[in-house]
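ok so I'm stuck.
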Amino acid sequence: MAVAFDNDEEAVPRYFLTQGEVVGSQEPAVISTILGSCVAVCLFDRRRRIGAMNHYVLAKSKQGSRDLRYGDVAIPALVEKMAAYGSRASDLDAKIFGAAATSEGQATKVATSNVAIAIDSLHRLGIPVLAEATGGRTGRVIYMHTYSGEVFVRRLAG
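replied:
not stuck anymore, here's the structure
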């Protein structure tokens, strides 16, 4: 499905990201996802004007896992996706979304761990985090415009 935006007559592709996926585009596109305690990291290459997003459920995988539902796998995969497009870490900016504690107890720990793995991983890679909309008690729908790096957030009803 395509969508037109920014008063542009030209429609751009839309991609909906589910848990355990990494999606990027070298062409203008809109990537969206729905987040509860999950986290999405959006990367934007300001030099090439391209972007990508991941969506992971839990912070840490079992050793040797390649499961993209885990942040310690999904974040390197996201960086690799951008590198495959010709991006260098020094040209990337990051934004982090999600990690709502939709219930007490374990959900709060999961959400906190999910954000921590993103911040730690991006810091180790030298990728600055320009924006973060995490926490709270309600989920979010996010829309990333890959050509500008803009991310629009809509909170879900609680």
